[in-house]
Amino acid sequence: MAGWNLEHTYSELPEIFFREQFPAFVRSPKMVVFNEKLAGTLGLDADKLREAPGMFAGSELPPGAKPIAQAYAGFQFGHFAMLGDGRAVLLGEQLCPDGRRFDIQLKGSGVTPFSRNGDGLAALAPMLREYIISEAMFHLGIPTTRSLAVVLTGKGVIRDGLKQGAVLTRVAASHIRVGTFNFISAYGTEDDLRKLADYSIRRHFPWLEGEKDKYLLLFRQAADRQASLISKWQLAGFVHGVMNTDNMAISGETIDYGPCAFMDIYDPQTVFSSIDTMGRYSYENQPKIGAWNLARLAEAMLPLFNGHHDEAVKLAQNSIAIYWDNYNRYWLTGMRLKLGLADEEPDDTGLISALLDLMKRYELDYTNTFRALANDLFMPETHEITAWNKEWRARIDRRHCDISDAFDLMNKHNPAVIPRNRHVEEALAAAESGDLTLMHSLLDALGRPYEESRLFSTPPEPALCGYKTFCGT
Ligand code: AMP
Ligand code: MG
């Protein structure tokens, strides 16, 4: 059995929520990368499964699998659209030895009733990119879906030219999205909506069961998870790139690694996605888009908050105000730690903004500037930077006996290794031509992000920072 222990609680929801769908058959699957540690967490036998690429390509189902494609909608760049799993199937929910439950989903496994004009397939490089960046996020302590395997299908897919087809096995706390609520609000009954909310509570917030205002509390807790998640993105310099409501998970995990990327030089207006011409999903907009998406979730849930529409709207508005309070608190706490401040002073916000301003003006690398402050590495010695440094040191001295305590704190909260675009691209290009060495050494460094890496800690030359990502992966 290789440790498979699949259940199917999602399929107990009304039929409108999913369609039964088998993955496409793959004749000659080949394992490219297999996440042995994650397999261990899931209670799976890595030795057996490493040799079973068919199981991660869709040609051979794990015992107990009942594959489905999930229905969902989403506000894409602000506009409602019916979507659904167009190139993914959920095999089931793996019950882990530690009692946790994870969705096991194949991505790139053929067409489904929700494919619209898509081919249902995925190419190797984008699937490896998801593998690399989701692993990096996990090791940075940022909630995320994970990647268990990437398998070559042996078939070509047409993207920008002919590419090698691949399937990614995604592991997620669940695939309930804000878009699942948008979908049921548009196409289902109030009873369906209630069932989805009850299911979400059971799956992610079981302590709310039995509470009088459980649906409002569900909304608030889901919002709180987004506040915490997005604060972590901001602190790490991560730009998701396509924060449509279908790409926002109720669990609070980062999901859907399409046009995402990490910032090199600090610029709040950073956008990587070639189609995001208005900068809707820029770095600085992410917390606002979080609130916008939560407003769409609240709209879908309104009938559950209160029978009176106006009352329900008030409750939703209060809850979004709480999201902002939480977000600001999480961000400030995180920034203090990045600057080695173990306590609070009222003007910390001013100190932080002043540093960010300098980073922007002097085009400093976001990640390495924080590292440099703690490790006596190179910083431009302008009058303004020296003055800021003095102020910051004085701020630390007011409370700390020893500056080295502050530096230790900083080295635990500021990574030395992030998946820099240039390194990821180089690793993907090598992998496409069959050489996985660079990808494995990158993954190894990303697994220990707080240790300097000779190969991967150096930022690119400023001229090489204009990175673009593309959709249609
Ligand atoms: P995404 O931009 O990855 O969040 O996907 C948005 C929607 O497009 C989802 O419904 C996906 O399932 C669908 N989709 C993306 N790529 C494909 C594809 N190659 N074939 C079919 N559907 C796709
Ligand atoms: Mg998506």
Notes on the protein architecture:
This protein starts with 5 loop residues before the first strand and ends in a 27-residue tail after the last helix. The mean pLDDT is 96. β9 (146-159) and β10 form a beta hairpin. It has 473 residues and is of the alpha+beta class. The chain is built from 14 helices and 12 strands. Magnesium ion binds at residues 246-247, 256.
Summed up, what is this model?
It is built from 14 helices and 12 strands. With 473 residues, it is of the alpha+beta class.
Q: What do the pLDDT scores average to? A: 96
Q: What about the largest sheet?
A: 6 strands, antiparallel
Distance between the termini: 33 Å
How much β-strand is present in the residues?
5-15%
Order of helices and strands: EEEHHEEEEEHEEHHHEEHHHHHHHH
Helix content: 40-55%
Each distinct ligand: adenosine monophosphate, magnesium ion
Count helical runs: 14
Helix vs. strand class: alpha+beta
Strand order of the largest sheet: 1-7-8-10-9-3
Q: What is Rg?
A: 23 Å
Structural shape: globular
Number of strands: 12
Query: What low-confidence regions span 5 or more consecutive residues with pLDDT below 50?
Result: none
